[in-house]
Design a protein that fits this description.
It is a single chain. By secondary structure, the protein is mostly helical. 67% of the residues lie in helices and 0% in strands. α1 packs across α7 and α3 packs antiparallel against α4. It starts with a helix and ends with a helix. The longest helix is centred in the C-terminal third of the chain and has 23 residues. The protein has one domain. It contains 17 helices and no strands.
């Protein structure tokens, strides 16, 4: 990898971190409990699909994974360590929380350096990457500071512990923790794909699709921001339906609150290489989005 490619890789990682930290939290209060810690796979999909990035850059950025957002920013190293210990010894919910903490920490190393490199060498970036980075406000000192804090906290975990996050995701999923199917599928798709059992992946994809079509808010949120054409085994019409249903739910709960989400989604979609929906696909997406929205309303009426 030459110098320009290395800078582009750093840029894509910084973009991933920027987007993740900006993941909107303007969710309906009634649905907030259904939203889990697993964030949308923005990091991998943007990095892997960015136009003009050399293949080696896209591959390196995708395999490096996301820069964590900061749901754990208020937690100390000791807090994180206790959370992970509880995950190994506790139930499915504790296992999912621990797995998410380790997932964030697994990608914390080097994030701040990547951001520094990006900020200081923007002239070497591909034009499309520069434009996208500028649309998100660039790499800020606050983002770099967050990455530094996360890396410092995560030093409490050795590589052997970090490598066990797949075990925790599996435990959470097999124990029935809410949101675990999506979290486990995300991990298998991006980090654990080398050892992934195709039958398990297929089963998870079916469950995730069922959750989305059943109006699960947290599952819909992941699809809303995804640009991945293959990772979750869904069609273009299905992904668009889930996205539109999520935006409608957010907007109706708090009119106008989905505007920032729509703006970010539009920016991300420019990096997707999925062809535009045909007229027939748009009709299918519209019909399915209505069904998903109605399913969400039924969940709320039933206290789900």
């Amino acid at each position: 990898m030459n110098g320009r490619q290395a800078i582009a890789t750093a840029a894509l990682l910084a973009i991933a971190g920027t987007v993740w930290w900006q993941w909107p939290v303007d969710k309906p209060a009634a649905a907030a409990a259904a939203t889990r810690e697993a964030p949308p796979p923005v990091a991998e999909t943007v990095a892997a699909q960015a136009p003009d990035a050399p293949p080696a850059v896209a591959s390196a950025a995708a395999s490096a994974g996301p820069v964590p957002k900061d749901p754990f920013d208020s937690e100390s190293s000791a807090d994180l360590q206790r959370k992970v210990q509880m995950g190994f010894g506790g139930g499915p919910d504790e296992a999912l929380a621990a797995a998410n903490a380790l997932q964030a920490c697994a990608h914390a190393a080097g994030a701040a350096d990547a951001m520094f490199t990006t900020r200081d060498n923007q002239s070497l970036l591909p034009a499309a990457v520069r434009k996208f980075l500028a649309s998100l406000g660039g790499v800020t000192n606050d983002q770099i500071a967050r990455a530094q804090r996360q890396e410092s906290r995560c030093q409490v975990f050795d590589s052997a512990t970090l490598a066990r996050r797949g075990e925790l995701f599996q435990k959470a999923y097999e124990g029935g923790a809410p949101g675990a199917a999506m979290a486990y599928l995300t991990w298998l798709t991006y980090d654990g794909k080398e050892g992934a059992d195709p039958a398990v992946v297929e089963s998870l994809q079916a469950q995730v699709r069922q959750s989305a079509q059943g109006g699960d808010f947290g599952t819909l949120a992941v699809f809303a921001f995804s640009t991945d054409a293959q990772g979750y085994g869904t069609s273009a019409s299905e992904r668009e339906a889930y996205r539109q249903a999520w935006l409608r739910i957010v907007d109706e709960a708090n009119p106008g609150s989905a505007a920032s989400s729509r703006e970010l989604i539009a920016k991300l979609q420019r990096f997707s290489r999925t062809p535009p929906l045909t007229e027939q696909q748009q009709l299918e997406a519209k019909a399915l989005a209505q069904q998903v929205y109605e399913a969400f309303r039924r969940r709320q009426q039933n206290g789900g």
